[in-house]
Write a structure and sequence with these properties.
Chains A, B: Belongs to the ROK (NagC/XylR) family. Chains A, B: InterPro entries: ATPase_NBD, ROK, ROK_cs. Chains A, B: This is ROK family transcriptional regulator. 2 copies of one chain form a homodimer. Chain A folds into 2 domains: 133 residues, ATPase, nucleotide binding domain (Nucleotidyltransferase, domain 5), CATH 3.30.420; 163 residues, ATPase, nucleotide binding domain (Nucleotidyltransferase, domain 5), CATH 3.30.420.40. The first copy, chain A, has 323 residues and is an alpha/beta fold. In chain A, 46% of the residues are buried. In chain A, helix 3 packs across helix 9, helix 5 packs antiparallel against helix 7 and helix 7 runs parallel beside helix 8. The mean pLDDT of chain A is 92. Chain A has a 5-stranded mixed sheet with strand order 3-2-1-4-7. The first copy, chain A, has a 5-stranded mixed sheet with strand order 10-9-8-11-12, covered by helices on one side. The first copy, chain A, has a two-stranded antiparallel sheet with strand order 5-6. Chain A has 9 helices and 12 strands. The interface between A and B is medium-sized, with 33 and 32 residues.
Chain lengths: 323, 323
């Protein structure tokens, strides 16, 4: 019987699953399932976690009894002691659901949960852009701004698992109100929605309406006349982000920053000013900085998650495998 | 023959030495020697490091052959691979001196060097205000502003040993010029000399000259008429420091801050606004923070230093002793 463990990335839109056999080699590719909404959390867990796992088990002619453990990347806040979901901002149905116990009881195997940005950081560390680095910061700029810290070659999560919450570092006390209720958080000034809002504002001031764009991605595709406003809003966002990253570099003596998330797909309009401004900041403080794009894309979370369970079952060793 | 190791704190004004026997118990109290200036670095090392050690060896009827290793807290920048002093801002004579090799060759024992703020953090962790904490930040506000980070129960030093250099995080781009040449570093706005400069400026604007004060400590003793200006400058410094600490808390998910350094001796004029403003920041971001004064005072550095060598010789274990 083949022994294996499972990496899961549970998001509000998609669930990603991959399988690794116990030597650390990957079994097949990461498979993506669209998240299926149901009436109860239990039904959603059955439908979006258990069924996909059992489907892959069957497809690969594995035996479910060979499953040694599950590592899970979750976008929700959870209790690190119990594995209960505290709050999933994108799906209130799961609030309070005893996710970890449910799966533990069902499969009688260890379950490990971790924050999505932390899992992505781990994934990039194991076999992505950050392979071989001892200290680095992974930042995802998307609907929110998340961050994972690898320090001394290990994931650093802090007292409550909240380390790296850079999205809610206050950058300007008089900045826009953030979803969290505080003014001027980085997220309210440099995330995808923040860049979109600012682009719309700048365009509107110039008499151009792009109100029909409800996602930043739509602006990327937009005609030339909007380009200068997108450029300016990306430059402003890059300035705030660079300011924060430069502080991270100074505080943590890190020189590598791995960048992921949908906003990086804007390409040079965002990446060029970010690179330039960040290098300026680093130069001023006499520090070096290397900005790299995440390599594993949307798969970093499942790979990080599977590493957590591998580590748990292998005396704290990370997966050392050829991907 | 009693086996023991030595903790040293080499500062520009004083050298502090303590001895621990190999079980981790302290042999006598920490002894302070004033730093004696000589013509060469070698003479200064002999006079300020070797002689004090040999003096204590004799006083305690120990045998120098029982010395197993030296841990050293240094205020200088040094090369972590070679143990050479790169630059000691307060004593140029030592720049380039192969300090670690010199002592290794002389005593044929391992020598471990560490930054002074890092050693102080370690000292407070081993047997001071931070005993039992897994994650905390130690901040010293003095002539400069230094910081040591204990993360996951271990000293975190970063890629080059520069982690925690919060004194040179830029707080205001239009702030005063710092000694490092950059504008608006925290150190230029919240250190002892910065508070002194600002108090003088405020007093001067009100027609009072306190130019004869060349150290902040002198202002603490000053007559009532200066009190409002000292209060204001301390409040301003506390605001900058709180702003930075609140970012540290958010980034590292830490809730304990240990404060040391001469400026804390100003007492409530500095500590009261710092506590209040910091709690306000933490409250806004929904985080908890506990601000404690360092407990070991000027001895934290030697105790941290001795722990480094203890750890080196004891498979990575920290000293567990009753002080």
């Amino acid at each position: 019987m083949v022994k294996f463990f499972v990496g899961l990335d549970v998001g509000a839109t998609n669930v990603r699953v991959n399988f690794f056999e116990t030597q650390g080699n990957k079994l097949g590719t990461t498979i993506v399932f669209p998240f299926k909404q149901c009436r109860t959390a239990t039904e959603e867990v059955e439908s979006n976690i258990c069924k996909p796992i059992e489907h892959i088990v069957q497809e690969n002619q594995l035996d479910i009894k060979g499953m040694q453990g599950i590592g899970m990347s979750v976008a929700a806040n959870f209790d690190r002691k119990t594995g209960d979901v505290v709050k999933w901002p994108n799906n209130g149905l799961w609030n309070g659901f005893k996710l970890s116990s449910y799966l533990e009881n069902k499969y009688r195997i260890p379950i490990i949960m971790e924050d999505d940005a932390n899992c992505a950081a781990l994934g990039e560390f194991i076999m992505g852009s950050a392979a071989g680095l001892r200290n680095f910061v992974y930042i995802t700029v998307s609907t929110g701004i998340g961050c994972g810290l690898i320090l001394n070659g290990d994931l650093y999560t802090g007292n409550n698992g909240w380390a790296g919450e850079i999205g809610h570092v206050v950058m300007r006390k008089d900045g826009p109100i953030c979803k969290c209720g505080v003014r001027g958080c980085l997220q309210s000034m440099a995330s995808g929605p923040a860049i979109l809002r600012r682009t719309k504002e700048l365009a509107k001031n110039a008499g151009i309406s792009i109100d029909e764009c409800y996602k930043l991605e739509q602006v990327f595709e937009y005609p030339e006349e909007v380009a200068p406003y997108l450029e300016q809003s990306c430059r402003e966002a890059a300035e705030y982000l660079s300011e924060l990253i430069s502080k991270l570099i100074m505080i943590l003596d890190i020189s590598d920053v791995i960048l992921g998330g949908g906003v990086t797909r804007a390409g040079s309009v965002f990446m060029e000013p970010l690179n330039r401004i960040l290098k300026d900041y680093a130069h001023c403080s006499g520090r070096k900085v290397t900005l790299k794009l995440a390599q594993l894309g949307d798969n970093s979370g499942t790979i990080g998650a599977v590493n957590l369970i591998y580590k748990h079952l292998n005396n704290g060793d990370d997966i050392k495998t050829i991907y």
